[in-house]
Design goal:
Elements: E1 6-13, E2 24-30, H1 32-35, E3 40-45, E4 56-62, E5 68-74, E6 80-86, E7 93-100, E8 106-114, H2 121-143, H3 147-157, H4 159-167, H5 197-214, H6 237-258, H7 263-284, H8 304-322, H9 344-363, H10 392-400, H11 412-416, H12 427-449, H13 454-476, H14 494-517, H15 527-530, H16 533-542, H17 559-582
Parallel strand pairs: 1-7
Antiparallel strand pairs: 1-4, 2-3, 2-5, 5-6, 7-8
Length: 589
Amino acid sequence: MLQPRGIFPCFCHHARQNPLSSRLALMSSLHPLLSQCLYQFLAFVPPSNESLRKPGTASVMVDTQHPLTLLLNSSEGDRDLCKIQYHFGEFGNYSLVVKTLNTQTVSCDLIVNEGPINSYLPILFAFLVYMAVLAILIAGRLLMKIDPVRNWVYKKLNPRATDRMINSELGSPNTTDSVNCDPTPQSWSTGSRPRLRSLDTFRGLSLVIMVFVNYGGGKYWFFKHESWNGLTVADLVFPWFVFIMGTSIALALGSMLRWGSSKWKVLRKILWRSFVLILLGIIVVNPNYCLGPLSWDNLRIPGVLQRLGFTYLVVAALELLFTRADSGTWEGQLPALQDILPYWPQWIFILVLETIWLCLTFLLPVPECPRGYLGPGGIGDFGKYPNCTGGAAGYIDRLLLGEKHMYQHPSSGVTYQSTMPYDPEGILGTINSIVMAFLGLQAGKITLFYKDQPKQIMSRFIIWGIVMGIISAILTKCSKEEGFIPINKNLWSISYVTTMSCFAFILLLLIYYLVDVKKWWSGAPFLYPGMNSILVYIGHQVFANYFPFKWKMQDSQSHAEHLTQNLTATTLWVIISYIFYRRRVFWKI
């Protein structure tokens, strides 16, 4: 949301009887059944003027993202006069009319003075615009398959070349002879197999959403990270990016080994790439926000690229240690598990890592905090643990990194008013990002072991998606707050990893079927940023505040203007990646 929106003129009408209190206090909380938050003071309602028969009034603004519980009590706090639960809308104007009927009874009525706006109309309009552009592109592609239309277009674009083609003994060019719209060179293949465009498409889809979210997401709450437990659109993309990185590791390392590269040479490439990713994350795109110029005193050590670099190092080194140049054949028993059994040492390593995460999360003593605490601190949990944000994860980061070297404005700070720094890319969560990448690695192994068997690949993806979904259902009890381990992006909880892996397997299955099996979809436009992901990610961070990616808005409270700016910036990066794609320029590390 842009800002707290609902405006409340709160009335305490004068009554003939003795008033219950000379002043009333209005407080609010997120729905306590959902968040267990302390009530927060909003305003005092002054006493009514009996001589002028003028009610006391107070105006406040409240957040509209979550349902709220409003509590009206006496200024002494000894009596709760009324309680109202309501989900207010953006730019709505409401009145809470309070009347004292007698010394023991108070009536509270919520009146809608001005209805909230429909803040989703800009999204609908943007969707229709993009669908119209897509329809035009599809229609143009279909028209180009008609010989007279195609010949006319070629003649207008390049008359000499077209005349030669038409007058040649081959006759009019057919679809297979026309200019190939895919400039991908054969050297991009993985071994002797064609490159899986679905992987680049999936990576590009994740990256495009990530760029849009980082630019502001139109200032809609569901394009921002969830305050603590739960999921929004913004919480989906980073783990998908990690997942597809793991998938690419399986294909790339197998290819290099089959082409004769030694393991030592491959290891040097792994170390170099990890080092460059971490360095780029620390130096190029990662000043500690809102703390002035970059310096070692307040340098944020964790970050997105840092986590990607370290995760890549661990998973790629683990795969290199056990992979074979002839991976893809398994002579042992249980052929249905041929993509798992040859790598049982890797699975043991991952299970040990996850055991470490569980032990540290639930058994590590944290000063002044209960063991196993997974909450946001601040006013959450009725304010019992204000300095325990993130439990063991936050404590380990503050202990090893120092508070100045962490993210200073976590998403939990606004909703739960926590004051402790907390880094969503911290040390403990990196363990589960490794697990996420390893599950993506498993998807890559499936494509290797069942090459040229798309039905087997898709069935394995379905099975893995179902297994991950079942594990998530057990860990969360199919609820947002009441599970053993809630889904939490800030903590990168194991339930978050299994849930995102479930989505990733299913989404990769769909893209693989459409792009690589049926070839109904080329992967455009997501294919282009997916093949230049480092360029797009670093570029969008470095140039985020420069025109044309950003400009001074006339109305900073307008979803429509924010959405226009953010979609324009995101679309520009897709166009830039397409230009580089056509010129066969790819930034690889």
